[in-house]
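Milestone M4 deliverable, item 7.
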Amino acid sequence: MRAVSLDEYYSKENVSPVSQKIKNIRAHRFRRQRLLFALGIPQIAFKNKDILEVGPGSGFNSIVVYESNPKTYTLIEANLFGLNEARNNLTKFKKRSISTKLKFINRSILKINPVKKYDLVLCEGVLSGIKNLKQFLKKLDGFVKPNGLLILSTVDEISYLADSIRRLLIQTDIKGATCNPYSLAKKYEPVLKRHFRNLKGMSRPVQDWIVDNAVNPASNLPLYNLPEIIHTLNGKYDVLETWPKYIEDWRWYKNLVGQRSNFNAVAKSQYWAKCHNLLSNRHYLAARNAKTNQKLYNECKKFRVCLRNYEKQPSNANLRKISMTLGRVANKMPFLLSDEKKFLVRLKRLLYKPYFDQQMILKNPTLMRWFCRGQQYISFVKI
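Output delivered:
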C-alpha cells in the first residue's frame, strides 16, 4: 500500500470525513472560544486581523473565527469537497455585522508561494496526515508575519494509541480489502457507537471517524509530538501555550531575559515528564521520569510501524511483531492504568492465534471506554 497524504485520500474518495453534528451552535462557539482562550488567544485577537486557515475541512471550526470579524480570512483546502462544505457553512452562519473579506483556495499549501503574510495562521488536524514535517512547517512559516501567531494541533504516538488499536482490529478484519470507505464504516458503526457513548462531547459522526481513522491509509503515517514540532521550527518560534496544559513555569519573570527565557526548553521538558497522561482521558497522573516516558513513546511508535507494515503486507509474521510490541507498550505503561495494561496483555496473546474474533475484542469493556487524549493544541509566537 503506497503511503498517501490526507489530501490525496480525501480527493481520491471525494469525501470530507471531518463533519460535526452541531445540535447547539452556541455550545459549539463557547467550546471553541474557550479552547482558543486557553491557548492565549482571546476572541478579540482575530478582530480586524489577516487570518489564514490551512486545512479547514468542512469549516465547522472556522465559524468561530469568522464570527470574530477578522479583516480578511483565507481558507486553503486541497480537498474540493471539503472546501465547498466550508464555503456553505460560513455562508450559513454569516451575520450582518461581519465585514470580513473571505477567500477560498482549492490547492495544497505546498503548491502556493507565500506572497501575503498573515497575523495569525491556523492549521488544525493536518500534521497527522503529512509525509514531511520539515517541508510543511517551513511552508507555513512563510505565511506568518514577524511577531505573528501560529496555532497547530497534533496527535502523537501515545495520544493515538487506543485509536490505533481500534484501527488494528479493523485492519486485521478487512485484510487489505478495498471498497467504498463508507460501506466499510457501516459494518463497524454499531459496535463503535457503543465506544463513543463513553466519550462525552463527541460531535463527530461515527462513520466519519471510522473512515478517517480506521480506513484512511494516511492516518497511519508517522505522527509528530510537541518536542519534534518545536525542534523542526528551528528557533523561529516560542511556545505560547498548549492544551492540554503541560507547562508550569515558576521562574521569576525578571530573569526571563535573552537565552535564559528558554520557553521552548521548558515546554519540551514538561512534555516528556507528563506525556504518559496522554494515554487516558480519564486519569491525571503525577509527572514521572522523562526517560521512562521516552521509552514508552518509542514502543508506541514501534507498534504503529509494525501496524503500517502489516497493512502493506497482511501476514501472521507481521501480526506476531505487533503482538510483541504491544507487550512492551504494556510494560512501560503506568501501574495505575491496570485495566488498559491487562487488556493489552490479553490482546497480545490473541494476536498469536491463527484466528481471533475482532468484533468480540471490540466489545471488550476496557477498550470500549478507553480513549487517549488525542489532539493536542499548541500556540506559537514568531520571534
